[in-house]
Amino acid sequence: MEFPKLSQIQSPRDIKDYSDQESDELAQEIREALYQVVSDRTAHFASNLGVVELCIGLHQIFDFSKDRLIWDTGHQIYPHKLVTGRFNEFTTIRHQGGLMGYPHPGESPYDLFMTGHAGCSVSTTLGLKAADDLLYPEDDRKSVAVIGDGALPSGIVFEAMNNAAGLNKDMLVILNDNKMGICPRVGGLASYLDKARTAPFYNGLKKDVSWLLNKLPVLGEPVAEQLMHFKDAVKTYLHGGMLFEEMGFRYIGPVDGHDLPRLKEALRMVKDVKGPVLLHVFTEKGHGFEPACADPVTFHSPAPFERDENNEIVPIKKSSSPAYTNIVSQTVYDRMERDDKVVIMTAAMCAGNNLDKIRDDFPERFFDVGICESHAVAFAAGMAKSGARPIVDIYSTFLQRSFDQIFQEVALQNLPVTFCMDRAGICGPDGPTHHGVFDNSYMRIFPNMVVTAPGDASDVAPLLDFALTYDGPVSLRYPKCSAATVERQVAPIELGKSEVYSSGADGTIIACGALFPDCIEAANLLKEKGLDVGVINARFIKPLDTETIFKALDETGFVLTVEENVIAGGFGSAVLEAANGAGLRTGHLRCLGIPDEFVEHGDRAELLSGLGLDAEGIARAAESMAGQNSLI
Ligand SMILES: Cc1ncc(C[n+]2csc(CCOP(=O)(O)OP(=O)(O)O)c2C)c(N)n1
Ligand SMILES: CC(=O)[C@@H](O)[C@H](O)COP(=O)(O)O
Ligand SMILES: [Mg+2]
C-alpha cells in the first residue's frame, strides 16, 4: 500500500488543517502501517489500533511542540510516532538500533519520558504542568495525560489525582477506556467503569441538571412509579463520573473515541478549562481489525502473522522448546493440585505469566489484582500470615514497584512468600523499561530473603518445591526464553548449596541462573584451546555456597561469575563481598554481568552477545583471565 499522507508528515503541524475526510484517510494509513509492522515481528498491536483517532484528534487540537502529552505506559505510542515524523523509520521499530516500541525522548521532542511501566502519566503530567506554570507562566502550556482503564487502578494514579485536585492545576486526563488491560480488566473500578458504559453523556463543565430535572415526576402520573424512574435516572446519572468528580476533577464523557469529529469537539471543549478535568473516552481495543477486536488478549502483542489465501491469520510457529514461564506455570499448577494452601497472584499479567489454566481450574486460589504490584506483595503477605503459601508471579521489572512491600510486609516479617520473577534478565525488544536486570541486587539485600535462580529447566520444579516448603520468603528468577536442559545427574536442592557440574584446574566459571548452559559451552570452547575450566551452577544467590566458591577461589586459576543482572550488587558482587569478608585474595575473581548502563531493545540473543553474555563472550572473558592469571 502507498502512504501518501504518512510519507509527507514531518510534524503534527502538517495534519492540523486536515478535513474530516483527510483525517479518515490518515487513520486508514496508520492502521495499514500497523498491520505491516506486526506481520514480521512481535509488536503491540490492538492497543495502537484503538487510539488512532484519539492520537490524530489530540495532535490536531493541541500543539505538543509546546503543550505536554504523556501516553501512559507507552505501548500505544505507535500512531503518535507516525504523526510526529517517524514514518520513514517505522519498519525498524523494536529492532536493535531502530525505533523503540515505547516513547523515547532521544527519537523526538514529542516524546517526553521513556516509559513502559504503567500508571505514572498523571504524576509526570502534573509535574510538567506545575513547573511550566512556575517557569513559563506566559506560555499557557496545556498538559495532557492519556491513561488506559487497565492502568487506572495503579495506586500512583490516585496519588496524582489527589495531588492535582489539591493544587487545582489545569490539566487534562483522558481515560482511554477499552474495557481491557492486556487481559480483561478486573476489580471494583472495572465494575464502576462497566456501569459508566450505559450512562448518558455528562458535561461536568456545565454541571447541567436540566437533564435530571426533566426526569422529575409530572402531574397526573402515579408518583411512586415516577419516583422509581427518577431514582434509576439519578443512579445512571451518578455512575458516569461521580468518582472523579468527588475527587475534585471535572468529568466529561463518555465520548466515542472513534468518532473523530465528536472527539475533537470534546477536546476543544476541555482544552482551556481551569482546574483538573477527566475526559472519558470509549475506544475499542483492536479497532479496525476484526480478529483483534474479537481476541484483544492475543492481539495485544501478537507473534508475527500473515494471512493465507482465505484471509485467515497464520501465526508464525513459536519455538518448540518450553519457555521458563510455561515450566513454572505447569509446576505451580501441579503443586496447587496437591496443596490447597498454595495460592497465586498476578498483577494483570495472566496471559504473560501463562496462568489462564490456573485461573480457570483454581478460581478461588488465583488472584489477578490488576496493575498493582505493591498491593500484590502486601496482599500475599497477609495471606501468608494467615497460613496460605502465596506465590507472587510478577515480571522482574514490574516487581520493582513493590520494593517497600518486599522489605516491610514480607522480609521484615519473615513470611513464606514465593516470588516468581519472570522475564528476569534481558527481555529483548521491549528494551530498557522491561529488562529485568536488577533483581539479584534488590532481592539479596534483605535479611531473611532466600534468593535463587534455576540454572536450567530441570532446576525449576525442585527450586519451587523448596520455596513452597521453606519457612520464609524465597525468590526465583528466570528469563524470557526457552529453557534448556543440561544433561547431568541433577543434584538435589539444598539451602545455600550450588551444584558442581565440572571441575578444572585452570579456572572456574560460576553460572548464576539460566546462562548455565552457555557457561558449559564456554568451558567446552576453552577446552579446545587447551584450558581446563570447571563450571558451577550457583542456584543460590543468597545464602551463598561459600564453601564451594571459596574452594574454587583457592584451588583453581581464576573464578569468573556470570549473571544476567547488573554487576552492581549482583551475584558476583556477593561473591566478592564474601571473599573479602573471609580475607581471601580476589585478584583472580571477575564478575561478568550487565555494565552500569541501560541496555537498548533488540533481539535477546543479539543483545546478550553484545554484552559478552553468550558462550563466546564468556569464553573470551575466561580466556583473558587465564592469561592474566599466569602473570599473577
Ligand atoms: C507496572 C506495570 N505492570 C504491568 C505492565 C504490563 N502491561 C503493559 S500494558 C498493560 C495493560 C494496560 O492496560 P491499559 O492501560 O488499559 O491499556 P490498553 O492496552 O488497554 O490500551 C499491562 C498490564 C506494565 N507495563 N507496567
Ligand atoms: C506493554 C507491556 O509491558 C507488555 O505488553 C509487554 O510488552 C509484554 O511483554 P511480554 O511479551 O514479555 O509479555
Ligand atoms: Mg485498556
From TrEMBL:
InterPro entries linked to this entry: Dxylulose-5-P_synthase, THDP-binding, Transketo_C/PFOR_II, Transketolase-like_Pyr-bd, Transketolase_BS, Transketolase_C
Reaction(s) this enzyme catalyzes, per UniProt: D-glyceraldehyde 3-phosphate + pyruvate + H(+) = 1-deoxy-D-xylulose 5-phosphate + CO2
Cofactors demanded by this protein: thiamine diphosphate; Mg(2+)
A GO molecular-function annotation: thiamine pyrophosphate binding
Enzyme class: transferase
Binding positions for thiamine diphosphate per the UniProt entry: 75, 116-118, 150-151, 178, 289, 373
Co-factor: note: Binds 1 thiamine pyrophosphate per subunit. Binds 1 Mg(2+) ion per subunit.
Pathway: Metabolic intermediate biosynthesis; 1-deoxy-D-xylulose 5-phosphate biosynthesis; 1-deoxy-D-xylulose 5-phosphate from D-glyceraldehyde 3-phosphate and pyruvate: step 1/1
GO cellular component, as recorded: cytosol
The keyword Magnesium is annotated on this UniProt entry: yes
Pfam families for this protein: DXP_synthase_N, Transket_pyr, Transketolase_C
An individual GO BP term: thiamine biosynthetic process
Region (Disordered): 1-22
Keywords in alphabetical order: Isoprene biosynthesis, Magnesium, Metal-binding, Thiamine biosynthesis, Thiamine pyrophosphate, Transferase
Domain Transketolase-like pyrimidine-binding: 322-486
Domain of life: Bacteria
Family under the similarity heading: Belongs to the transketolase family. DXPS subfamily.
Function, as annotated: Catalyzes the acyloin condensation reaction between C atoms 2 and 3 of pyruvate and glyceraldehyde 3-phosphate to yield 1-deoxy-D-xylulose-5-phosphate (DXP).
UniProt subunit comment: Homodimer.
Official protein name in the record: 1-deoxy-D-xylulose-5-phosphate synthase
Organism expressing this protein natively: Polystyrenella longa
